[in-house]
Amino acid sequence: MKQLKPMADRVxxxxxxxxxxxxxEGYSLDAQRKALTRWAQEREYTIIGxxxxxxxxxxxxxHRPAMQRLxxxxxxxxxxxxxxxxxxxxxxxxxxxxxxxxLLSAHQCGLVSYTxxxxxxxxxxxxxxxxxxxxxxxxxxxxxxxxxxxxAERAAQGKRTxxxxxxxxxxxxxxxxxxxxxxxxxxxxFAKYAEYHNLSAVAELCRLRGYTGKRGRIQTAESIRxxxxxxxxAGYNVYLDELYQGTHEPLVSVKEYNHVQDLLQSHGHKRRKxxxxx
Length: 278
Prior knowledge:
Blueprint: E1 10-17, H1 19-25, H2 29-42, E2 46-54, H3 65-75, E3 81-84, H4 87-90, H5 94-106, E4 110-113, E5 118-119, H6 123-156, E6 168-171, E7 175-178, H7 180-196, H8 199-209, H9 221-228, E8 236-239, E9 242-245, H10 254-266
Parallel strand pairs: 1-2, 1-3, 3-4
Antiparallel strand pairs: 4-5, 6-7, 8-9
């Protein structure tokens, strides 16, 4: 590994905040920028640029425009030190952290965390960088687990688990209400498959009637199959492949839904994904 320059005075200030971070922890991009600017000025460093990603998660770097510009400038040897509010603002991914540190080291660019009081231009700082990176990723994974647990609890309470589905419109944050025009299409599809036992034939009948999907797409055999195998139409929600009784009004009966599943399976389509509805 190359030795860092003994005098690093070209500083890049990187800030990032997601909507959730700002609401939960109360630090804005402006607050980060002011604190980091003061830090650089106190050390008589030259601030060569501000790089800010607003409302963007730190789970990876590929979708962050300001981060990409920052790394491009590091590659062009324009920066001696990057200063961030906290390592979690820089990245929450250990893999990204190590990859970026390899890039910074190759171009003799240091990394300083303002609130965590470490300087990764030193051996001790680099060790601390690895430890903090692990904890940053742990925090992200714990957050993801909490989100999944909350979603599973919503499903268990019968609350909706999707944001868009043919036949329904959103009804508040918890459930769905029937869209009469679209519901007619769904019921027609179930009825015609029960009659013809052929996905392509049902798709053609829908095209002749001008029946499309939720976003106006022409129905195909595959899109018909997906509609026919959605338990939501019989009053059930699905989350992580588990079935939950929903609070919304079904479009077809459980008996009709189960009958269609039996027909699909008997005609060589994919094995039943969900058990028969009770």
